[in-house]
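Quick illustration, no need to memorize.
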Amino acid sequence: MSKQPVRDVENLTPAVSGKLDDAGPSETEIADYLQNNIDFFERHAALLTKLKLPHSRGNATVSLVERQVSALRDKNQSLESRLRELIDVARSNDVLAAKIHRLACRLVRARSAATLLDSMETSLREDFGASEWLLLLAPSRQTGFSGIDSRHLRLIDANATELKMFDTLFESARPRCGQIRDSQRDFLFGAGTVEIGSAALVPLGREAGFGLLAIGSPDAQRFHPTMSTDFLARIGDLVSEAVAAA
């Protein structure tokens, strides 16, 4: 960066520690000068101990060096805090990835539609703490599941009017989290049978052609609209492949 023409240093230094007079340089000019001459305080090191700044935590004054050290310490603490947050997120993602891996292994081992449902029940209950969930399947995927009696399975015609309430979900073909309408809750989990504070709805198959996986929780904050749905999408892909092979 090119340096600006240097004015007489003695004319600049009073403005740093005292009030500006009308004939002197403006604060902007001083700031620009120091910005373009970053070695200024190396050439005038004595000024660092003479300049005094208000202490950020009281009425006392500190030298510029002390203020810089304090600012760097605060910045370091902020960076450390951010690093801890990133490490916590990474650890949480590792734990979640391990749970999805166990689900995938269970689905691979399933040899029938019945054992597939059992595998899903085990993973969703033990690994994801989901006791309320439903696999809703369209007719083209009913073959292997016909005759199975389970509260976690429902076979429904693709033209059923009840599915209209999920049109926007199917159109997006992406998982959705948050509170659901009473009509959706009652249809999926039963009217007045369980308390559902929030839910995750996961479309299954290409363009949601297989149906959906609904997971409910009594905790209103368990599934919230701002949470990432990437892992739910992966679960949906795994379940879709398993349903197609059942």
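Residues 64-109 form the longest helix (46 residues).
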